[in-house]
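Hey Z.,

So I finally got round to the magnesium ion thing we talked about over coffee. Here's the setup:
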Amino acid sequence: MPEVLDEAPIKTSGLNHYFGTGDARIQALFNVNLEIPRGSLTILMGPSGSGKTTLLTLIGCLRVIEEGSVHLLGHELNGASEAAFVSLRRRLGFIFQAHNLHESLTATQNVLMGLQVHGTVDPKKGRDAALHILGLLGLSDRCDYLPGNLSGGQKQRVAVARALVSNPEIILADEPTAALDRESGRKVVQMLKTLGQVRGTTTVIVTHDPRILEMADRIITLEDGRIVSDDLQ
Ligand code: ADP
Ligand code: MG
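And the result:
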């Protein structure tokens, strides 16, 4: 099916999700309906256990859709093949709370991993792209450091660089600023916002961080698996 460019890159409708079986079965999401426009920055808030990560991983092709629909970049995920998931995931950038850096690779090499999932990369171009993005994140003087020699905030910024280096169409971030001080946290979010404006990158950030709320285009709040508010800023 051809992709329609002005279609919202993320759409969910009637989305339900469950964990466990028998008596232990719980419903984590209830009838989630969302339409997120291209180039926007959306913040997903809500108490612990409200379903934020579940929703983000369903949108990110990291979990199978059980009930309802997620439409991602023009493709329906409910019933999609593993091959379709793999090729869609390549168009996404993930930033997780646990930054999952390779401890034996330098900052630059970790960022290059973000390009290598896309196949062969010209080594010089790849390195230039990695150094450029590390520079934008204020890490020019840390490119050759191993994660063990970086602070928590620096490691988190390397993970952000790794997610951004391949110019993903959608960025999904779970608590990306938790380990950052106010200034670096705002810098990272400002960068995501700018990417939305200049490249049309669509960003969804799960956060509790009140310091970045004002930077969002939209704030969606989940409680007990349901959307309880959806505010355009
Ligand atoms: P949040 O990210 O908002 O803290 P989650 O999406 O992680 O919330 O969790 C939503 C609900 O689903 C919670 O009740 C949680 O305990 C449950 N849950 C999440 N992941 C699993 C899992 N892998 N197995 C069983 N229950 C889970
Ligand atoms: Mg979570």
